[in-house]
């Protein structure tokens, strides 16, 4: 599939998730940014959409905010969601990964609001807590919601199988370059790109037995948009 088709598929996947999420009883609301850390990851497809939005809205100054704080510690994944699923299938060891919210807030935040909220990546859309994180000191996410989140992450990675996953800082700064955007458009991004790891297609979904019946309508909605 070409890039425009993949972007259209991404929008449809977001819409299905938003329709699911709007029915949940969550504490998350405007100006609540406790979970907005510098540890967000996303795919190149999502980042490409965000960069296009930044350029259209004349928000490219945000690249400098990322660059200024790029020396700070943040989560940099060693494998993707589908990569983890494949390791489980093969019975191989899961790599240890360090991730800590105390590493700080997302460098893009301004007055506890996200300047890129409309095109925000799925990792920002799916963190839905049942309790106020600021008051309780931690989030509380329903186990079924976590299962749904993992499935959506797998499908988003699947449609960007020729692309990469990485920390928001790495990917957005990478796609700031016109040459890198063209390489991505032509499916010619180098496999050794610093800080980014190759995406993988779906081989198995992360769905525990107790959630298989409940998630069927969501799976049917996703599969109805004819992902290849």
Radius of gyration using CA atoms only:
17 Å
Order of helices and strands: HEHHHHHHEHHEH
The protein's oligomeric status is: single chain
| Beta-strand percentage range | under 5%
Provide a descriptive summary of the structure in words.
The protein has 228 residues and is mainly alpha-helical. The protein has one domain. The chain is built from ten helices and three strands. Strands 1-2-3 form a three-stranded antiparallel β-sheet. The longest helix is centred in the N-terminal third of the chain and has 19 residues. The termini are close together. The model has no long low-confidence stretch (mean pLDDT 88).
Describe the SSE topology.
Blueprint: H1 3-21, E1 41-43, H2 44-56, H3 62-68, H4 81-90, H5 122-125, H6 133-136, H7 143-159, E2 164-167, H8 168-176, H9 178-185, E3 197-198, H10 216-223
Helix pairs in contact: 1-7, 2-8
Q: What would the keywords be for this entry?
A:
228 residues; 3-stranded antiparallel sheet; mainly alpha; 3 strands
Can you summarize this structure?
With 228 residues, this protein is mainly α. It has one domain.
């Amino acid at each position: 599939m070409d890039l425009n088709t993949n972007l259209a598929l991404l929008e449809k996947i977001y819409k299905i998730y938003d329709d699911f999420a709007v029915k949940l009883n969550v504490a998350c609301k405007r100006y609540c940014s406790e979970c907005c850390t510098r540890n967000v990851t996303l795919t190149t497809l999502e980042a490409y959409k965000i960069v296009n939005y930044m350029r259209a809205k004349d928000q490219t100054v945000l690249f400098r905010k990322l660059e200024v704080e790029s020396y700070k510690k943040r989560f940099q994944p060693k494998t993707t969601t589908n990569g983890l699923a494949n390791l489980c299938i093969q019975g191989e060891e899961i790599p240890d990964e360090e991730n800590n919210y105390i590493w700080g807030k997302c460098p893009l935040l301004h007055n506890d609001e996200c300047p890129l909220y409309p095109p925000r990546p799925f990792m920002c859309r799916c963190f839905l807590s049942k309790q106020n994180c600021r008051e309780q000191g931690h989030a509380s996410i329903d186990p079924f919601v976590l299962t749904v989140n993992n499935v959506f992450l797998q499908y988003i990675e699947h449609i960007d199988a020729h692309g990469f996953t990485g920390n928001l800082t790495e990917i957005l700064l990478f796609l700031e370059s016109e040459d890198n955007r063209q390489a991505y458009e032509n499916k010619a991004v180098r496999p050794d790109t610093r800080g980014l790891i190759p995406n993988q297609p779906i081989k198995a979904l992360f769905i525990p037995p107790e959630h298989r019946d409940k998630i069927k309508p969501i799976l049917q909605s996703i599969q109805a948009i004819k992902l290849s």
